[in-house]
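call fold(seq) -> tokens
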Amino acid sequence: MTAALSLRPDAILVDVRLPDGSGIVLARALAALPWMPRVLLTSSDDDAAGEIAADGHGPPLTFVPKDELPNAPLALLLAAP
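ret:
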């Protein structure tokens, strides 16, 4: 979070599984920053999409499995709503 506050990126890629906490919780906090960066969640875990959907807090989060990232339409996924 400190890096995001300092760098103010337009887009952020977050893994669902982080060594020190929940990527889902972090993604929601990042998406709520004042400049509203676009946040894309990813994971190599097949169950991650279900965890994101089951979380149910806040607006929906965008998720792309890691194996689909190389061919994902990132410009479209990160475009402003």
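The two ends are 23 Å apart (CA to CA).
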